[in-house]
Amino acid sequence: MTVASPCGRGPGGDRPSDMRRFLRAGAADPLQVAAILPSGAALANPMTREIDLGLAPVLGLALGTGVFTRALLDRGIRTEELTLVELHTDLRSRFPGVRVAQGDASRSDVRALFRRRKPAGW
Q1: Residue 14: per-residue pLDDT
Q2: How many other CB atoms are there within 10 angstroms of residue 96's CB atom?
Q3: How far apart are CA 90 and CA 41, in angstroms?
């Protein structure tokens, strides 16, 4: 399994809606958002470039507004091979078929996410 998580957040979101999502999450729980701006494709694309498609499934931890999720899917990760853990999220509706567990990634038992379902390739 590959784990994808942004090490930091870069400047700007990809769309105005990304900025709105980011600001809404920050206003709802300012101590949980550890960035001053949402990440954009300029950061997400190079960070996901090295993910080996043969190592799926991929677990995304705290990927934020969806720009990293989009980059992973654009790289060729199939939706059924991608599981996300995100605290503030509307990613379920934005990425149908991607498994989304809402919660604090630092406190989640990620093994429990896979107990009921054996991901492809495992």
Answers
A1: 47
A2: 7
A3: 19
